[in-house]
Amino acid sequence: MKTETEFEIQYGNSTIQFSLNYSARRTLGISVYPDQTVKVTAPANCELKKVMTKVEKKAGWIQKQKRKYASLDRPTWTPEYVSGETFYFLGRRYRLRVLKGIESVKLSGKFFLVTVPDKSKKGIIKNLLDSWFKNHANELLKNRFERWQSIIKNEKIYFNAIIVRKMQMRWGSCTEKGNLILNSELIRVPVDCIDYVIVHEICHLKYLKHNNRFYNLLTKYLPDWEKRKMKLEKDYR
Ligand SMILES: [Zn+2]
Hints:
Layout: E1 4-11, E2 14-23, E3 29-32, E4 38-43, H1 48-57, H2 59-70, E5 86-89, E6 92-100, E7 104-108, E8 111-116, H3 122-151, E9 161-165, E10 172-174, E11 179-183, H4 191-206, H5 212-221, H6 225-235
Parallel strand pairs: 2-4, 6-8, 9-11
Antiparallel strand pairs: 1-2, 3-4, 5-6, 7-8, 10-11
Helix pairs in contact: 3-4, 4-5, 4-6
The structure holds zinc ion.
């Protein structure tokens, strides 16, 4: 006979709910599904207390799996760094191909070729790719910014410094001191969307709020900004 009951445990600030099934199996199994449900299957004679302790021990892993499913295809998605995985660069899809050899990262056709001495060391693949993206983000975002800054220079907008760094929630922002901050993750979206974020933030250096004057300035330099904004929000959020 199959019995299934709902239980929950507390993990930090979050509650993990799971269904419990008893079966003839000899060890306890935990599965997390794409809809973020958690199913636990325990040996028929296993005490509930023991089940709870085991689930608590695996809570960190369960949360990680749930987050993975919750964030698929978003900028915060966590890659596994295995061959066949998709990475975006300037809005184009590339497949990761992990090769054995001397450390390097290369774009070739539709592939990111990452070469490492030991293919099982995911941390090294991650670091190589991260620094490749970071370097390209730094160079490209700064170039695009300089281009737009010279186009918009007649507006006499005060500007102090440009900072490229990873941000969780926003593509760009600016400070009252005239600093413009761009999310390094922008390197994954098409250049026309990158330009939209840059011009939007440059306009904020003049008008902090989204008022008419702000939108007039934005439209003056980027008449199709709405189209670019929609593309960015639809495809890359
Ligand atoms: Zn804004």
